Amino acid sequence: NKNKTVLIVAASQRQSGLLFEKVKSLFVEICPEEIAEEPTLTRLILKNGTRIYSLPAGRTGYAIRGFSIDLLIADEAAFIPEEVWTAVTPMLAVTKGDIILLSTPHGKGGYYYSCFQDENFKSFHVSSEECERVDPKFLERERERMTKVQYAQEYLGEFVDELMQFFSTDVIKSC
User: 59 near 86, Cβ under 8 Å?
Assistant: First the structure.
């Protein structure tokens, strides 16, 4: 799409950079002729005017304010602090842009959890047990090593009560 602005964020530079590297690699492999200038660690500019940025969200999102974006891609979205969403979602207001949230669940709360439950969002769930790239023997060892709750969150992709939580979320909400 021409003249679009895409922002890839994650809680840390390392995380946003890992996803950005995959995006850059795809362009270099599939359509290198579409790249307008040498990509940097945080920016890819295409000949059609589209710009793709990769930035860390940090704790507040303050340092990434200022963009008007057409697409927000958040990696490990469940781990991005709530204050960041207050800073980044207004970036989509003018463009009526889209959001793609990728993540391992992290408790039953927060922006990612809310979006996963929201009918205005389309949700996809794939557990590690459904992924043919993951060795079933590895998962078997992990299931033995981890608690049931840890395994459910990390490999089954389930929204579970906080790992260190004494009372369940349902009990707390009922009070």
Answer: no
Strand pairing partners for 72?
7, 99
Provide the pLDDT for residue 95.
96
- Name, in order, each residue with C-beta under 8 angstroms of 26's C-beta and a sequence gap of 6 or more: none
pLDDT digits (tens, 9 = 90+) for 80-104: 999 999 999 999 999 999 999 999 9
| Distance, C-alpha 79 to centroid of its chain | 9
Amino acid at 120: N
d(CA 121, CA 131): 23
Tokens of 3: 């003249």
In 10 A of CB 51, how many CB atoms? Answer: 17
Contacts of 87 (CB under 8 A, 6+ apart): 60, 61, 62, 64, 65
Q: At residue 97, what are phi and psi to the nearest 5 degrees? A: -75, 180
Please, how many CA atoms are within 13 Å of residue 140, restricted to the half-sphere of its CB? 3
134, with CB counted inside 10 A (0-12, 13-18, 19+), is: middle
Residue-wise pLDDT for 111-125, tens only, equals 999 999 999 999 999
Q: What is the pLDDT of residue 151?
A: 95
Output DSSP code: residue 10. E
d(CA 116, CA 159): 10
pLDDT band (50, 70, 90) for residue 174: confident
